[in-house]
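L-ascorbate peroxidase
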Amino acid sequence: MAERLSLITQSPVAMASSLSSAASSRLLSSTSTAAKLSLSSLSSSASSRSFSSSLKCLRTSTLISHHLPNLKRSSVVVRNGGLSTVASPKSAASDPDQLKSAREDIKELLKSTFCHPILVRLGWHDSGTYNKNIEEWPQRGGANGSLRFEVELKHAANAGLVNALKLIQSIKEKYSAVTYADLFQLASATAIEEAGGPKIPMKYGRVDVSGPEQCPEEGRLPDAGPPSPADHLREVFYRMGLNDKDIVALSGAHTLGRSRPERSGWGKPETKYTKDGPGAPGGQSWTAQWLKFDNSYFKDIKERRDEDLLVLPTDAVLFEDPSFKVYAEKYAEDQELFFKDYAEAHAKLSNLGAKFDPPEGIVIADGPTGATPEKFVAAKYSSGKVRELSETMKQKIRAEYQAVGGSPDKPLQSNYFLNIMIVIAVLAILTSLLGN
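Predicted C-alpha cells:
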C-alpha cells in the first residue's frame, strides 16, 4: 500500500551538523530502492524530464533548519557554494494569504510538470508515520514537515521523493510564512482536486518540527507486497486511527501515477500507457488514464483484464477480504460515493499527528474574499412619514423582504426589493391618510 498510498513527502534538507559537500552528496544517494511502495507509483509521474536527472544535484538548493536562540526556526540556504541565512516567521502558523498564493503556484506547477501523483505521495508520507498510541508531539509522527530532512528521506519507502521536494522548493522559498507541513498537505490536496478529484475539506496551520532528531523511525509506512496484505494494511492504518473504509477509499488514489521498478521493485519498466510520458516515460500504472482522478482503479482491479495495468498484492486484497470488498464493490459502481468517502479520508489523513497554531486551524477560501453583506435596516429603505412606521409594520416589511429571497445578512442582488418597498411605503402613507 506504500505504492498505493505512497504517502509522499520528501524534502531536500540535508540536516547535518556540518555543511560539507559530502553531507550534500549523502542526500543525493539517499534514494535507495523501496521495499515499501507507498504511493511511489504516484511519485513516478512527478518526475518530469527536467527533474528525472536532477537527483544528483540537490546540493545547489538545500535547506537546513536550525534552532537559534531568538528565533523559532531559521534556514540556511545553500546556493552554488554560497550561504545565506533566512529567518522564518516568528509564528509557527502559516499565513492565510501566502497559503492561497502558494496554492495558485502549485496549480501552475501541476500544469507544466504533471506532477500530481508525486505531490499526493509527498503529503501522505509526511502524515502516514502517525502513531495514535503516542501522545507526545512530535514523537507521535504525522504531518509535521519532518520529511524534509535527510534522515527520513533515506527511508526506503521514500525513494524518489527528493524529486517532489525539488519541485516545490521554489514555492517554499517564495512563501516563507508557509510551513513545510502545510505546504506538503496543500500540494497533495491541490493535486487531487486539479486531477479531477473531489474538493478536500482541508485546514492549515501545522507546526514544523525543528530538526532531524525529531524524525520518526523507519518502518511506519506500508509495504506493497507483505505476506498477509489485509493484516498488514490494518496493522499500519489502524495504528493511525483509520478504519477499513478509509483504507479502501485511500487506496483509490492509485488511480493516479505509476510504479517504477528501480525505486520500488514493483511494476514493469514501461507499458503502452507510460512509454510516452507525460513527464519522464516509463513505469507501470494502475489505470490507463493515470493522471485523471476517478474510480477506474476499482473497476480495473476488479476486472483485471489488462496485463499492462499494475495490481499489487495490497490492491488485489481489496476484492478478496470480505470487509474491504464491501467498499471496493461500491466504489467500482458509484464514483460519487467514492469521491465523498475519499475526501473525508484524505482530510483525516492530512491532519494526523499535526499540531495546529491556532489550535482550531486555518481554513482558506476558494476565491477572493467578498465584501461583508450589508445588514438590513428597514428605515434605510423608507422616507418621510414612513420612518415612523410601527414595529408591527417593520416586521411585515421584513417578512415581505425575506419572502422574495432576502435576509437581514444578505441583501437582494437586484432592485426588486426596492420596488416592493416603495409600493409598501406608498400604501402605508395612503392608509395613514385615509385613517386620519
